[in-house]
Amino acid sequence: MYTVDALLAGRWDTFVSAVKHLILPVATLVLVYMTLIIKNTRSTVEEMLRSDFVEYARALGLSRSVQLRYALRNAMPPVVTVVGIVFWFLLGGAVLVETVFAWGGLGQYGVEAVIYSDYAPLQAFVLLAAVFTLVIFLLVDLAYFLIDPRIKG
């Protein structure tokens, strides 16, 4: 929130400093969780490239880029599901990253509420985690519809 606050206040030096301090924590979270998304995307696209509709496109003489586009479009729903699940896990990963990089946030707030048996902040943390989960899975369902309108909920 330091970055957002500095941006809204027009304090560019504070904004740049906050962004510099976010580089390592964000890179850590990306490196940890992006591997799962990349592996899932690669295996799903490879499976789609071996499917009948891509074989048919290849038999028709369509270019390799068109075949890849067909495969990627049909591989997106499982990938979007994994991205939604990974976003949910980011909340747990943020606790560790916030602790290691001494960057206070919602994760540390929840952990401290558990340690000190402070139930009101713990309830707020659980409520925010539930709302975060609902919003993420709603966005995943909307992304399904945008990717392929034939998918019915």
Could you characterize what this model shows?
This protein has 153 residues and is an all-alpha fold. The chain has a domain at 24-42 and 76-147. The chain has six helices and no strands. The protein has helices at residues 2-9, 12-49, 52-59, 64-100, 106-115, 119-147. α1 packs across α2 and α3 packs across α4. The radius of gyration is 21 Å and the shape is elongated. The chain starts with a helix and ends in a 6-residue tail after the last helix. The mean pLDDT is 88.
Topology:
Blueprint: H1 2-9, H2 12-49, H3 52-59, H4 64-100, H5 106-115, H6 119-147
What is the rounded distance between the termini?
35 Å
Task: Estimate the helix proportion, in percent.
Answer: over 70%
- Provide the gyration radius in Å: 21 Å
Percent in strands: under 5%
Query: Order of helices and strands, N to C?
Result: HHHHHH
Give the mean pLDDT.
Answer: 88
Shape: elongated
